[in-house]
Amino acid sequence: xxxxxxxxxxxxxxxxxxxxxxxxxAAMLPFYAARFNTTEVxxxxxxxxxxTLLEKWRKDVPPEFTxxxxxxxxxxxxxxxxxxxxxxLDFLRICKTVESQLGATLFQLPPSLEKDLPLLEDFLExxxxxxxxxxxxxxxx
Length: 141
Known about the structure:
single chain, alpha/beta, 5-stranded parallel sheet, 6 helices
């Protein structure tokens, strides 16, 4: 399976370029999902999603559509992976609301976070074997 999508889907500046000029915000995801089969959800970097929101999104897309969620900045940037077990598990539980449409969860680390293997190993203990995760390491170390 080849996945083609973008980082985010709800951009007002795409109106008239990708989306029809008069599209409502609620119609953006269904329109997007009719043309692409995946998206990286940036919304979750800024706000913890609710099950209700993810249930709505799941209903707005075809069954084969895949969501990859960006982990909240509270985990990656504010706490820099330290003492984040509870919030990480809560986030992962909420993401599972999309069930079989769940792709990878992206942990985009801040450019200031240097290589720290013990920290990463400790953080990785949170994940079960069926959880797909991706890490974006941005520090040159």
